[in-house]
Amino acid sequence: MFQILNEKGEIVNEDAMPDLSDEDLKEIMRRMVYTRILDQRSIALNRQGRLGFYAPTAGQEASQLGSHFALEKEDFILPGYRDVPQLIWHGLPLTKAFLFSRGHYKGNQMPEGVNAVSPQIIIGAQITQAAGVGLGFKKRGKDAVAITYTGDGGASQGDFYEGMNFAGAFGAQTIFVVQNNQFAISVPVEKQSAAETIAQKAVGVGIEGLQVDGMDVLAVYAATKEARKRAIDGEGPTLIETMTYRYGPHTMAGDDPTRYRTDDMDSEWEQQDPIVRFRTFLEGKDLWSEEEENKVIEDAKAEIKAAIKEADNTPKQKVTDLISNMYEELPSNLQEQMEEYKEKESK
Ligand SMILES: Cc1ncc(C[n+]2csc(CCOP(=O)(O)OP(=O)(O)O)c2C)c(N)n1
Ligand SMILES: [Mg+2]
């Protein structure tokens, strides 16, 4: 397992240390702290009935944001349902993330210049698409990559093998990230596959694969940066398995992790916490203070409050919106329904 920063916040692999400025290091910390707060607030908003679908992210910040920090604006993200943070740091306004959670069509419309599709709920469906987007970049001679995220459960799907195999055969400029948080809902990773690691599944399709400490933001960043370079240099796609853990429930729809995880397992992983170890590292370099962290927290809370208010003020979606956003030219049966619902909505 590739690691740079251990759980005590010590650099254990000096040679692999990525070339990041002090400002970059601080920005990574800000993003992780912000995202932890966003997670806490999203859970609370869900409980208050103000958000809909939500998949908690705490524990996975290094895995999500370290990989994202290695990307450029022109790179294309094909995320899973837990990967809203990467979309936000790629430019998705927070209000839209909240609208996505509520099932509002506006939450699925990416603003111009945000190179991403909305989070995929079907496990693995985004993986084959990512192979295609990465091949498109290659054919157009673009210095950009497609990056897709899935979980350990996603790595058991047919689409995972198809996507990686295709990308390997055609040299697609694609990075496949598997965030191995040890469970697919309640099913532990050992029960999902006889393979010792998920990273080794790269061997079967002839692409590069590596397992990374997913609680170490520097290692995840360095691995993704290298994978991006290799893809653009024509050296093929990469599979990155990040070893991580979700502290919360699977989603907010009634999952109870105490039924399949022990307190010991939870606390073992919490001791690996990505934010705690990165804070220790930054404090050791005099780059971080409690005041700075508090400022990030306060700013995050204010932004979240404003964004949820904006979501509340967004007009409710109508049946006619669903129809008109589906086709450029409506088939005749939908034209009829459109007329019918226009009539109903006007009352
Ligand atoms: C094709 C398909 N089968 C089943 C489901 C139901 N389902 C939703 S999440 C999930 C587990 C996925 O686990 P993993 O890929 O490890 O991602 P994690 O939730 O742990 O991030 C399943 C089986 C689904 N959404 N799509
Ligand atoms: Mg999982």
Structure in words:
The protein has helices at residues 22-47, 61-69, 84-89, 94-101, 125-139, 158-170, 189-192, 201-204, 217-232, 263-270, 274-284, 290-312, 319-324, 332-345, and strands spanning 76-78, 146-151, 174-180, 183-184, 187-188, 208-213, 238-243. It has 347 residues and is of the alpha/beta class. It folds into two domains: 14-316, 3-Layer(aba) Sandwich (Rossmann fold); 317-347, no CATH class. The strands form two sheets. A five-stranded parallel beta sheet has the order 1-2-3-7-6, with helices on both faces. A two-stranded antiparallel ribbon has the order 4-5. Helix 1 crosses helix 2 (61-69). The longest helix is centred in the first third of the chain and has 26 residues, at 22-47. The mean pLDDT is 97.
Number of strands: 7
**How much helix, percentage-wise, in residues?**
40-55%
Number of helical runs?
A: 14
Which CATH architecture of the largest domain is right? 3-Layer(aba) Sandwich
CATH topology call of the largest domain: Rossmann fold
- Main beta sheet strand tally, sense and closure: 5 strands, parallel
TL;DR of this structure?
The protein is α/β, with parallel strands linked by helices and 347 residues long. It contains 14 helices and seven strands. A five-stranded parallel sheet has the order 1-2-3-7-6, with helices on both faces. Strands 4-5 form a two-stranded antiparallel ribbon.
Write the layout of secondary structure elements.
Blueprint: H1 22-47, H2 61-69, E1 76-78, H3 84-89, H4 94-101, H5 125-139, E2 146-151, H6 158-170, E3 174-180, E4 183-184, E5 187-188, H7 189-192, H8 201-204, E6 208-213, H9 217-232, E7 238-243, H10 263-270, H11 274-284, H12 290-312, H13 319-324, H14 332-345
Parallel strand pairs: 1-2, 2-3, 3-7, 6-7
Antiparallel strand pairs: 4-5
